[in-house]
Amino acid sequence: MKSTDKTVLIVDDTSYTRVVMRRILEPEGFIVVAEASNGEEAIELYNKHKPMIVMMDIIMPGIDGIQALQEIRRIDPQSNVVMCSSLGQEKRLTKAIGLGARDYIVKPLRADRVLAAIRAIMLLQEDR
Amino acid sequence: MSSENNKLCKEAVAVLNKVWKMSSQKAAEDLTIMSGDNFHLSNMNFQQVPLEDIPDLIGNPEQIVSVVMLEITGKCKGEILLILPEKSADELVSILFGNYQLSAEEIEENRQSALRETGNILGSAFLNSIAAITDMEVLPTVPVDAKDMTAAIMDIIQIKYASIGDQIFVAESALMRDSKPMALYLLAIFEPESLAEIVKHSNRSFLE
């Protein structure tokens, strides 16, 4: 994976959140390769596009973010997944970090926090 | 209603009012971050209202409202509903999308989603405050949204919570932006055992 790769997969069951995320990322030069509204779609689209970063909501109907994270990490142990959740989901976030999520963001989405999380991951990629 | 039940409900109202006071600032801050616009929430006073009286309290039974429902699981069971009359919903959607330069079509496609996220923010802040003061596990599920007549929404609630009876707590508030109010209503429905547990586990000093 190149450190100049700025591709992102956005996973959230709320289309408004996906709009907000896209509006944060695209002006900074990130390429949103796809959007998913549930964990099953996330896994399928990850396999198809192999994005540099996955921005993954935790609570979704059907296969949730934790299950999708597990599967994506199984498919690609080098994958970079950032979990996004509402306040009050500390237990789930701790579990996600234990399963290999690189970072987490607590909603509502703040542009500075989203970009800082992604840039930290890109720096780590360069160091590898 | 028995005097014991009466006492429980009075204590519950006190707890819910304090919970709202705790959570409303956080909720308004989160909405401000989400939208890029400066919001605050007006004070909210809960009252206990029979289910059949709620449509008239909100406006009229045939009024179209947007509703976001968060079911509560964990040690505490029930549901939180955020109800926005149509005029408030339209105004709020216009503000939420104001900074994003979307087409009218994109806004319409994402309208209910934006309202659902607003309900998620307000409802989650409220439930997190309940969890904080009681130390109980209070887990909201994926929010569900709907747009229908008030009476139709209340019919669904009546069927789902037939055993609750009169233990429905309703509060009227307003989302304020530039002193312009958008009316909203918060309904808090708890299963009787959960309500008793919330009152029992609330920090006594918190109530004083």
| Count, helices of chain B | 7
Query: For the terminal residues of chain A, how far apart are their CA atoms?
Result: 10 Å
**Alpha-beta content class of chain A:** alpha/beta
How many β-strands of chain B, per DSSP? Answer: 8
Round the Cα radius of gyration of chain B to an integer and report it.
17 Å
Q: Into which percent range does the helicity of residues of chain B fall? A: 40-55%
Q: Which pair has the most extensive contact? A: A-B, 18 and 27 residues
Helix/sheet category of chain B: alpha+beta
CATH class of chain B: Alpha Beta
Q: What coarse outline of chain B follows from CA principal-axis ratios? A: globular
Predict the CATH topology of chain B: Chemotaxis protein chec
Task: Outline the structure in words.
With 128 residues, chain A is of the alpha/beta class. Helix content of chain A is 46%, strand content 20%. Chain A has helices at 15-25, 39-49, 65-75, 90-98, 111-127; strands at residues 7-11, 31-36, 53-57, 81-85, 103-106. In chain A, strand 1, helix 1 (15-25) and strand 2 form a beta-alpha-beta unit. In chain A, helix 2 packs parallel to helix 3 (65-75). The longest helix of chain B has 33 residues, at 3-35. Chain B has helices at 3-35, 54-58, 86-96, 104-134, 150-160, 192-201, 204-207; strands at residues 40-41, 45-48, 64-74, 78-85, 138-140, 144-149, 168-177, 180-190. Chain B is globular and about 55 Å long. Chain B has one domain: 3-Layer(aba) Sandwich (Chemotaxis protein chec), CATH 3.40.1550. In chain B, strands 1, 2, 3, 4, 5, 6, 7 and 8 form an eight-stranded antiparallel β-sheet that branches. Helix content of chain B is 50%, strand content 26%. By secondary structure, chain B is of the alpha+beta class. The A-B interface holds A 13-17, 19-20, 23, 59-61, 86-88, 107-110 and B 26, 30-31, 33-34, 96, 100, 102, 106, 109-110, 113-114, 116-117, 120-121, 124-125, 127-128, 131, 138-142.
